[in-house]
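User: Hi! I have a protein structure encoded as tokens and I'd like to know what sequence might fold into it. I'm fairly new to this, so please keep things simple.
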């Protein structure tokens, strides 16, 4: 891909993005569409890492609020992200993409432990690295894990994949008149309490001057457009 604006990226995939129209689990058609977009990026020369959520299988925050011990619920959620990472890796294998799964919690018989130097080497070898189990700590979201891993991998941008076209002033599925932001600052996103990402992740990226792009993963060629620097989704930056 000529004239790439971003040569190394961290892609944040929510577990819910894998469901499609299903009520839970992984929809094969949906995951194959996501893999096709990732393959186009890889074929164009982009080095790509993924942080994946687990909300399609288990919602630790929800069960924590319902009375389960929050730390226990979060650990269960981490295991759900490992399941999603394995599903994504399998879909990538069938799509002709070489990938490696690294987990922040040790499950050595199933996936590799997270080792920063090894992950960077994989990226340099043009392999996709899928980071599972968040940060390995309860009380931190996978958004925060994505921000952390993006910085550790020296990514040029963190890209969050969603089902909508970017960051809106309100939920566009509830209010059709919600405003789509083309550009917004970190401080504006935090002060407006926009729900696309938690404040910890926004703050981490702001402090390290790491831009965030939010886009619709199901819009054909949207990821490629972002990588080429074309107008796509919403860009969150310092100014």
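Assistant: Happy to help. Inverse folding works backwards from shape to sequence: for each of the 239 positions I chose a residue that suits the local structure. Here it is:
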């Amino acid at each position: 891909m000529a004239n790439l604006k971003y040569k190394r990226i961290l892609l944040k995939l929510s577990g819910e993005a894998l469901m499609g129209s299903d009520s839970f689990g992984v929809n094969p058609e949906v995951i194959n569409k996501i893999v096709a977009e990732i393959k186009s990026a890889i074929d164009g020369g982009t080095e790509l890492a993924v942080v994946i959520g687990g909300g399609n299988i288990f919602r630790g925050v929800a069960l924590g609020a319902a009375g389960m011990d929050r730390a226990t619920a979060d650990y269960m959620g981490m295991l759900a992200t490992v399941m999603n990472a394995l599903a994504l890796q399998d879909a990538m294998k069938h799509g002709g993409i070489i990938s490696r799964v690294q987990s922040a919690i040790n499950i050595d018989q199933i996936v590799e432990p997270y080792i920063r130097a090894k992950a960077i080497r994989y990226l340099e070898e043009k392999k996709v690295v899928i980071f599972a189990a968040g940060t390995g700590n309860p009380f931190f979201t996978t958004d925060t894990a994505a921000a952390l891993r993006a910085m550790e991998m020296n990514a040029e941008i963190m890209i969050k994949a969603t089902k909508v076209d970017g960051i809106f002033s309100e939920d566009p599925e509830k209010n059709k008149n919600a405003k789509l932001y083309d550009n917004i600052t970190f401080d504006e996103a935090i002060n407006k309490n926009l729900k696309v990402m938690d404040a910890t992740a926004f703050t981490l990226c702001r402090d390290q001057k790491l831009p965030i792009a939010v886009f619709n993963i199901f819009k054909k060629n949207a990821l490629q457009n972002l990588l080429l620097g074309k107008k796509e989704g919403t860009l969150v930056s310092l100014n």
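A useful reference point when you look it over: The mean pLDDT is 93. Feel free to ask if any position seems puzzling.
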